[in-house]
Amino acid sequence: MLSFDAEPVLDARTFAKPVNYLLVRIQPLEGVAVDPLKRPFVVVDPRAGHGPGIGGFKADSEIGVAMRAGTPAISSASRPSRCRG
Fold it and tell me: Which long-range contacts (CB under 8 A, 24 or more apart) does 36-40 make?
C-alpha cells in the first residue's frame, strides 16, 4: 500500500474509450517541499498494485528520496477490476 497520500490527476475510466488506468500525484510527507517546476519522478505500476515489490511507496524508497530532493512524484497504475466499455 502507498504510505503516501495521492491526489487523482486523471482517471481513464472517464475517457471516451474507458480503460482501467489512472494517474495520481503523490503528496510529499509533512515537512517535505517539492518544486512543481522540476520534472517529476514517475512510477509505472502495470499490475494493478500487485507489483513485484518495487519498494517505491515508502518514505525511504526512491519516491521518498526523490521528494526530499525537491522532485515531485506521480504514479500511473491500473485498477484491479475491469471497467465498463
Answer: 36/72, 38/70, 38/71, 38/72, 39/71, 40/71, 40/72, 40/73, 40/74
How many CB atoms neighbour CB 66 within 10 A?
21
**C-alpha cell, 57:** 511507496
One-letter amino acid at 43 equals V
pTM of the model: 0.73
Please name the residue ranges forming H helices in 1-85.
Answer: 62-68
Domain boundaries, given as residue ranges, for the chain: 6-78
Using alpha carbons, list the distances in angstroms from residue 80 to 12, 20, 22, 50, 68. Answer: 14, 8, 11, 9, 30
Of 26, 31, 83, 33, whose CA–CA distance to 58 is shortest?
26
Mean pLDDT of 10-19: 90
Rounded CA-CA distance 7/62 in Å is: 19
